[in-house]
């Protein structure tokens, strides 16, 4: 949920931005609102005088992409659900605290909001602490590789570059759309009478597999699990692996040197 909230605001396919740091201040603020709305819906909680109502208690939901939370005056002495995401370390946090005055800093910002103090941190009940969450894909790819991916002039070229450069790693539809930069981005991935990305990579000896259609082959090759909306590419390293792909209805030019 957190990954989707952030990526939906970054909007890489439409804006070309690839990181949280590139967002405007108002967009960063909106992520907090989005997390509040989605968390409330996910937990099936009603709205209250604050963000939600739990067992008759008004509860505030606070989200941060930093290292602390800003607590408004109306939430003082009320329970708070604390949510945080660390984009650099790909870690997330979920905790509960009662925003007692002595759990808050003496200083405040211009909106009279205070941060959680050291004593407050010591009294957070953590449900998730330094828990892994899906990283920003573009943070996992070296800058020179990103440059090569986007060097392609057409959607097919960029897609082929993506799956040639980033193998054995599940790729989401959002990343596919960001690279294709076209409305019919899914078409770029499919075979297209020899012109599609899958066709081109097959001629280079590279498999382009769908988590929806090719799950048995993905598992048989020992590749990472893909959801139904993810894709993974792989260059077989032996004739038996190429034969295995053929048995699943996917033929590649085994031993092809093109693209190596």
UniProtKB/TrEMBL annotation:
Pfam families assigned: NaeI
Domain Type II restriction enzyme NaeI: 2-238
Single GO molecular function: DNA binding
Source species, domain of life: Bacteria
Catalytic EC class: hydrolase
GO annotation terms (biological process): DNA restriction-modification system
The name this protein goes by in its record: Type-2 restriction enzyme NaeI
Record organism: Aquimixticola soesokkakensis
Taxonomy of the source species: Bacteria, Pseudomonadati, Pseudomonadota, Alphaproteobacteria, Rhodobacterales
Gene: naeIR
């Amino acid at each position: 949920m957190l990954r989707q909230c952030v990526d939906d605001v970054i909007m890489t396919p439409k804006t070309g931005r690839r990181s949280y740091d590139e967002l405007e201040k108002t967009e960063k603020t909106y992520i907090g609102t989005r997390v509040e709305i989605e968390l409330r819906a996910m937990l099936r909680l009603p709205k209250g005088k604050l963000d939600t109502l739990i067992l008759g208690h008004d509860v505030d939901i606070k989200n941060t992409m930093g290292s602390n939370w800003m607590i408004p005056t109306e939430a003082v002495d009320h329970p708070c659900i604390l949510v945080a995401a660390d984009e650099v370390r790909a870690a997330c946090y979920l905790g509960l605290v009662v925003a007692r005055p002595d759990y808050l800093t003496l200083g405040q910002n211009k909106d009279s909001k205070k941060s959680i103090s050291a004593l407050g941190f010591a009294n957070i009940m953590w449900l998730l602490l330094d828990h892994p969450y899906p990283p920003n894909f573009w943070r996992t790819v070296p800058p020179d590789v990103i440059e090569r991916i986007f060097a392609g002039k057409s959607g097919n070229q960029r897609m082929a570059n993506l799956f040639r450069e980033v193998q054995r790693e599940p790729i989401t539809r959002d990343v596919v759309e960001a690279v294709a930069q076209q409305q019919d981005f899914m078409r770029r991935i499919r075979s297209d009478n020899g012109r599609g990305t899958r066709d081109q990579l097959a001629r280079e000896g590279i498999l382009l597999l769908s988590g929806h259609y090719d799950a048995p082959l993905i598992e048989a090759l020992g590749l990472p699990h893909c959801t139904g909306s993810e894709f993974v590419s792989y260059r077989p390293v032996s004739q038996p692996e190429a034969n295995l792909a053929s048995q699943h209805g996917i033929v590649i030019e085994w031993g092809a040197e093109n693209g190596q």
